[in-house]
């Protein structure tokens, strides 16, 4: 009678991906060596952006400003996104050649042996069906009065680190996170990042916000055709 041979296969545990929403700023600084700086020339240049609006665009901005002022405390995340952020982005108009807006798309990369990923709220990226080279992120459509333990800056920075890893060329990654009426603009350049003060979208800061968002188009157009 032939001997039975038993083969034992070692069960290798698959490393789990750490989702964007589970990252906090301090963890990213420790794991990946990034560092916040108080001043960054390219952030200052971005924040000084100016633009001109048509009469119709100004009228829309004024209506949005008033709507946000009256509802920032009450809108949930989807209502904020639908009734304020989306109309602002229509004024900005991210209709660019070879580049488009993606929403709720999966993005991931392995950085220093750690897999990071998840769904991104909004990104401007090269790509037709899926994002290939991400350039700009908007993260966190949070209700202003919602309390939680999440760190929106950390989540945004984790997305920006993945974009940095996916792009073949080293270039600044631009981002923004939103908490109700407050908008914060962020740049990650190599291992340094800087964050703006809050812009209040329910007052005349709305015009600065539109100008800053529009300036992203110039930055993207400057690099989009690079290999």
Q: How would you sum up this structure, described in words?
A:
- This protein has 227 residues and is an alpha/beta fold.
- The chain has six helices and eleven strands.
- It has helices at residues 25-32, 41-47, 55-71, 77-92, 152-166, 205-223, and strands at residues 18-19, 35-36, 99-102, 105-111, 114-120, 122-126, 133-142, 173-179, 182-189, 192-195, 199-200.
- The strands form two sheets. Strands 2, 3, 6, 7, 8, 9, 10 and 11 form an eight-stranded mixed sheet that branches.
- A hairpin with a 2-residue loop joins strand 9 and strand 10.
- It is globular.
- The termini are far apart.
- Mean pLDDT is 88; it is low at 7-12.
What do we call the CATH topology?
tt1808, chain A
The major beta sheet can be summarized as:
8 strands, mixed
Count of alpha/pi helices? 6
Give the CATH architecture: Alpha-Beta Complex
Average pLDDT, all residues: 88
State the helicity in percent bands: 25-40%
CATH class type: Alpha Beta
Shape: globular
Listing every helix as H and every strand as E from the N terminus to the C terminus, the arrangement reads EHEHHHEEEEEHEEEEH
Class derived from helix and strand content = alpha/beta
The total of beta strands comes to 11
Number of domains: 1
In angstroms, what separates the terminal alpha carbons? 65 Å
Rg on CA atoms, Å: 20 Å
Which spans have pLDDT < 50 for at least 5 consecutive residues?
Answer: 7-12
Q: How large a portion of the residues is in β-strands, by DSSP E? A: 25-35%
